[in-house]
Amino acid sequence: MIVVADSSVLISLSAIGQLAIIHARFPEGIFIASAVWKEVVEQGRGRPGAEGVRTATWIKRFEIKDLVFAQYLQTGLDAGEAESIVLARELNANLILLDERDARDVAKSFGVHVLGTIGLLIWAKQTGHVDNLKELLDKLLYTANFRLSNSLYAFALHQVNE
Q1: Measured distance CA(69)–CA(89) in Å, rounded
Q2: Using CA atoms, how far apart are residues 146 and 160, in angstroms rounded to an integer?
Q3: What is the SS3 assignment for 8?
Q4: Residue 90 pLDDT class (50, 70, 90 cuts)
Q5: Are 62 and 33 in contact (CB under 8 A)?
Q6: Domain boundaries, the chain
Q7: How far is CA 124 from CA 1, 57, 136, in A?
Q8: Is the pLDDT at 130 greater than 90, yes or no?
Q9: FRET partner for 88 with CA separation of 20 to 30 A, picked from 7, 108, 109, 140?
Q10: Helix, strand or coil for residue 60?
Q11: Distance CA 32, CA 51 (A)
Q12: Does domain 3-117 have CATH number 3.40.50.1010?
């Protein structure tokens, strides 16, 4: 399975000490675009995700080829989101890890399947990789300043019977 990740999922899971969930879910590894590397590792030095992404052997950085398409997408998305979507298309990825609604909508419009931080946490709870989803959702909200609607919070807990 070919999986591309945007910075939001990497940073959010790192902020709550759960970056390893991605590797558990995708043991063959994931790809990130250079703009994501720059945002998380270089510009994010000293912040959640920087060191974990820099040292993870299962995260592979990739240069996109279609810079014109990425620039076009940047009219409505940030550089990392745009390059992630371009990379997913170039690699014919099965899945892209994205959180922001606009970016998710664009990815879906190009036929790319999308999974976000909450979906990964639900999977982790359902498969026994984490014990308490509510605790992690609360950490996302109050430690990582993750934007999460009340309805999605309730939906996630309902999915795992918490």
Answers
A1: 11
A2: 20
A3: helix
A4: very high
A5: yes
A6: 3-117
A7: 18, 21, 11
A8: yes
A9: 140
A10: strand
A11: 15
A12: yes
Three-state DSSP class for 39? helix
Q: What is the pLDDT of residues 132-143, one digit of tens each?
A: 999 999 999 998
Token pair, residue 6, equals: 């945007």
The DSSP string of 90-140 is HTT-SEEE---HHHHHHHHHTT--EE-HHHHHHHHHHTTS-S-HHHHHHHH
Q: What is the pLDDT of residue 49?
A: 86
Q: What is the pLDDT of residue 62?
A: 95
Encoded tokens for 100: 């922001």
User: How many residues are listed for the chain in this entry?
Assistant: 162
* φ, ψ of residue 84 in degrees (nearest 5): -65, -40
Residues near 127 by beta carbon (within 8 Å), at least 6 away in sequence: 24
Whole-Å CA distances, 16 to 84, 142, 143: 23, 10, 7
Place of tokens 């945002």: 39
Quick one: tokens of 22?
A: 């991605």
